[in-house]
Design a protein that fits this description.
101 residues; Helix Hairpins; mainly alpha; single chain
Length: 101
């Protein structure tokens, strides 16, 4: 049995679902950022799989752009979380009330 496009898409869907659950259900800001990274990696798997089985290079190019955006998101997100932790001493997203009136 060979690994086909369906297998990669199923893996991508499972990873995306796990990331979506983590982003919506968890309260820790670091866990939410890691869940978003999992979702971006799931999209990367789908893009590379479509590129491989569709014989196009565009999926791989998009995957590289997604990795760049994920790295920037991780750097900026962690910097924001560290800044909020220094002022509030918590990473619980329900206690982030800086923008409330």
């Amino acid at each position: 049995m060979t690994v086909g496009l369906e297998h990669f898409l199923i893996l991508s869907a499972i990873l995306f679902s796990i990331g979506l659950y983590g982003a919506l259900a968890k309260r820790n800001a670091v866990v939410i950022l890691m869940s978003i990274e999992i979702m971006l990696n799931a999209v990367n798997i789908a893009m590379v799989a479509f590129s491989r089985y569709g014989h196009l290079i565009t999926g791989q190019v998009f995957a590289i752009f997604i990795m760049v955006v994920a790295a920037a998101e991780a750097a900026v997100g962690l910097a924001i979380i560290i800044a909020i932790y220094r002022s509030r001493e918590t990473v619980d997203v329900e206690k982030f009330d800086l923008m409330k009136w």
